[in-house]
Design goal:
The complex is a heterodimer of chains A (324) and B (202). Chain A has 324 residues and is mostly helical. Helix content of chain A is 69%, strand content 0%. Chain A is built from 12 helices and no strands. In chain A, helix 1 packs across helix 9, helix 1 runs parallel beside helix 10 and helix 4 packs antiparallel against helix 5. Chain A is globular and about 65 Å long. Chain B has 202 residues and is an alpha+beta fold. Chain B contains 6 helices and 5 strands; from the N terminus they run ααβαββαββαα. Chain B has a 3-stranded antiparallel beta sheet with strand order 2-3-5. A two-stranded antiparallel sheet of chain B has the order 1-4. Classes of the chains: A mainly alpha (324), B alpha+beta (202). The interface between A and B is medium-sized, with 14 and 17 residues.
């Protein structure tokens, strides 16, 4: 791609992502309502789709208040971090052959770097707010995200072993024969659970558990700063869905009657809906259950997955192939 | 004394000790499976009938005894039933009813003005229960929103309806013992003529 075409693609992708995140608020409310025998917002525009825009306008016009005792620069920068890191994460997602902003050879590591950096956002937010609920919420978030990150990375080692590359386009190409969710089913389950915890979506939304922490780390936030946290959350949801599709469900691959990008978007939309179904269906676990599940169950499973995958690969492939 | 039952219990305890780690693992898997099942059940709720009543287009069912907008009714002759006894104003827990008693040339009482402040009213129905003449009644109507709070104050002309409401055929003065224009003592329905307390005969 030429530089101009690349810039154009970046701008289009940026606007598409922001619009999709705004629309996702409406999709989430409609789907939750659908699963709860209700209708959800169906008044503004066809099927209520203009509700998303009404919400954006409302949140932009709201008073943007900074608490007097807050650490102002940190307080302001915290919501920006999560939005920026999640947007940067999309730079490595291949939407279709050739349709990727940065086809890094360490794309997977870049993804983990970005999700790792987003921990700073909640930590800063909780610290700068000068509020007990915020601080407790951010402490929980930091602990939860750091521990789930450990085996989020470990769960993908199996994929990397099978594909022999950290480059996402190579990983998708390696799935031409069989999508990786078959050989790496354990990895998929672990990665999916970790991704929920990483984006602190329900049922793992303990950082912002309303009944005990008011709203967790964003208690003191209002207006568009609060909106940025939610933008980050929805972008994170889309990013981890896109990563699940890329790593386990063959990315853009699919029967040729639809163009590759449509396959990719359809699969991603499916996983976004699965996220929303999780929210509709499951209760929040206790905090110790969450951490216990991570360290006592998911971490050993992820490690076992690596050992078994590595052993099978070593046993079935020729030494030269493995060495390369 | 060691009976067989306690031996069996001890054996069971030993076994459970040995398999505790194993059963813990299985309980984790069972947790995962039960969550998948509840996700499927919630998903199937998408195909059920909606509970929502889309209000302005669809109207909800209102029971006949629904307590909504308050009205003042008339007796079958078309006269006001209200006798301005103030019992409704006394019964009202939020003091939203106010009125002024007056009487016509025949001695019949009626309210000079009657005012209900619906922005205060809690639709408890105590005024209806207190009313001795079935004059004040609550109706199944709640669509009385206003943009200006002052429009929620209803005067007598807004409250009076032309009909008898829930009690057709009832007229207080027809059954009451009170002498009133044209109807003397003892002439009401089911009323015996007045006893002459000074006479000797029963």
């Amino acid at each position: 791609m030429s530089v101009v075409a690349m810039l154009f693609f970046i701008v289009v992708l940026l606007f598409a992502l922001l619009a999709a995140a705004a629309l996702l608020t409406w999709v989430e409310r409609r789907l939750l309502a659908w699963w709860q025998d209700r209708y959800g917002p169906n008044r503004a525009g066809p099927f209520g789709i203009l509700q998303a825009f009404a919400d954006v306008i409302k949140i932009l016009l709201k008073e943007d208040w900074i608490p007097p005792l807050a650490d102002k620069p940190v307080f302001v920068i915290a919501p920006a971090i999560v939005a920026v890191t999640m947007l940067l994460g999309f730079a490595i997602v291949p939407l279709a052959p050739g349709l990727v902003i940065a086809d890094l050879n360490v794309a997977l590591l870049f993804f983990f770097a970005m999700t790792g950096l987003s921990v700073y956002s909640v930590t800063f937010a909780g610290w700068a707010s000068n509020n007990n609920y915020s601080l407790l919420g951010s402490l929980r978030t930091a602990a939860q995200m750091i521990s789930y990150e450990v085996f989020m990375l470990l769960s993908l080692v199996g994929v990397v072993i099978l594909a022999g590359s950290f480059r996402l386009t190579d990983i998708v190409d390696a799935q031409r024969g069989m999508w990786f969710f078959v050989p790496q089913f354990v990895g998929l389950v672990v990665f999916f659970l970790a991704a929920i915890a990483e984006t602190h979506r329900l049922p793992f939304d303990l950082p912002e558990a309303e009944h005990e922490l008011v709203a967790g780390y964003h208690t003191e936030y209002s207006g568009m700063k609060f909106g940025l946290f939610f933008l980050g959350e929805y972008l994170g949801m889309m990013l981890s869905s896109a990563m699940i599709v890329t790593l386990f469900f063959g990315g853009w691959l699919g029967p040729p009657f639809l163009p590759p990008i449509v396959w990719f978007l359809l699969k991603t939309a499916f996983f976004v809906c699965l996220y929303l179904l999780l929210r509709a269906a499951l209760p929040r676990p206790r905090y110790d259950q969450l951490m216990g599940y991570a360290w006592k169950f998911l971490l050993p499973v992820a490690l076992l997955n690596i050992v078994v995958t590595g052993a099978i690969v070593v046993a079935t492939r020729s030494p030269a192939e493995v060495g390369s | 004394m060691i009976d067989e039952r306690s031996i069996a219990a001890a054996k069971r305890a030993q076994t459970s000790e040995r398999t505790r780690s194993e059963s813990w693992l299985w309980s984790q898997v069972a947790v995962l499976l039960s969550q998948i099942r509840s996700m499927a059940e919630v998903f199937l709720h998408g195909f059920r009938r909606r509970e929502t009543i889309q209000y302005p287009e669809e109207k909800p069912y209102l029971a006949p005894r629904f307590r909504g907008r308050i009205v003042l009714t008339r007796d079958p002759d078309g006269n006001e039933r209200c006798v301005a006894c103030y019992l409704c104003a006394v019964a009202c827990p939020v003091d939203c009813i106010s009125l002024q008693k007056t009487e016509d040339e025949t001695g019949r009482w009626y309210p000079e003005w009657f005012r209900i402040n619906f922005s205060r009213c809690i639709y408890c129905g105590l005024c209806e229960e207190a009313c001795p003449t079935y004059a004040i009644q609550l109706t199944p109507d709640f669509e009385m929103s206003e943009y200006d709070r002052r429009n929620m104050v209803y005067e007598k002309e807004h409250l009076l309806i032309s009909g008898t409401g829930k009690y057709p055929g009832y007229s207080f003065y027809r059954v009451a013992g009170r002498a009133i224009g044209g109807k003397d003592k003892g002439e009401a329905e089911n009323e015996a003529p007045p006893v002459d307390v000074r006479g000797l005969m029963p």
